[in-house]
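does this look right to u?? adenosine-5'-triphosphate version
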Amino acid sequence: MAVYTDVSPAELEAFLAGYDMGTLTSFHGIAEGVENSNFLVQTTTGSYILTLYEKRVRREDLPFFIGLMRHLAGRGLSCPEPVARRSGEVLAELAGRPAAMVTFLPGVSVRRPTAEHCAELGRGLAQLHLAGADFAMRRTNNLSVSGWRPLFNAADGQADTVAPGLGETIATELAALEQSWPKGLPEGVIHADLFPDNAFFLDDKLSGIIDFYFACTDYLAYDVAVCLNAWCFEPDGAYNITKGRALLAGYEAVRALSDAEKAALPRLARGAALRFLLTRLVDWLNVPEGALVKPKDPLEYLKKLRFHRAVDNAQDYGLAA
Ligand SMILES: Nc1ncnc2c1ncn2[C@@H]1O[C@H](COP(=O)(O)OP(=O)(O)OP(=O)(O)O)[C@@H](O)[C@H]1O
Ligand SMILES: N[C@@H](CCO)C(=O)O
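got this back:
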């Protein structure tokens, strides 16, 4: 349940008086999501999402996230658009938290994506990359290769309590990727967490992309690798090459991958699998007492990592030769 901070109707009405968005008709907390507190707010002018930024989002990163959503929406990408207050500011404070209002996007996320959804997603991801090309701000990806060892250290030798031998597997993989992480690939704005719960569809067409709070500047092909991991595996752990082919063809219909990006894809996919394995492992080992949020399974990403270790050619993901 992602409402960590309560907001009273009176507080919200006073907050909304700073905007040109009519008067409050209803609001309620949104259960999905784990990072921030989100509310669906309805006013006489329409529907909006109010986000209160909780502690995992660093305050100094907020101008990047807000600026990026505004930039991408301005380039025609369907993503939440921050709404400015009468003062011109987008960030404000509510209930002791930094807060912003963004536009509501219609659509639903899909739990079991089909190849058609994967093709749509691939196109949308490439459009995001092109729309972000002239965004002036930068944000280092603190969850890329140099951030993985600190995460592993934070698991503090407890990996084997989750699965026997897991600590050794991660140590070996981490050392290998630190040695061989690709260099010099095309970079730009990446979403970095474009999982099925962050993409909306209407009539099986991609209608919106949300949750830009891991977005950063990194290799564009790394974002493709994150999506192959998140969209193209079946619940039993098998890679679905039909979905992979659809996602990659969708992406390349909008932005062609360079030879260097294609060659790097297996290694980027290993890195992406390790990144989610590590963050999930740390969360798994640190579930707060009484928490209502169910941690995500780290071992799902161990299986994916094993799959990628056996791949040495991007064609094995379904990339057109
Ligand atoms: N602009 C939007 N339009 C419509 N619904 C939205 C919008 N933004 C967020 N939501 C709803 O709120 C939920 C949580 O949003 P979001 O994923 O951004 O939260 P989070 O706490 O940052 O989550 P996560 O755990 O995925 O990092 C979404 O699943 C969606 O239902
Ligand atoms: N998408 C992440 C959760 C944080 O956004 C995961 O599945 O591990």
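DSSP finds nine helices and nine strands in the chain. idk if thats expected tbh
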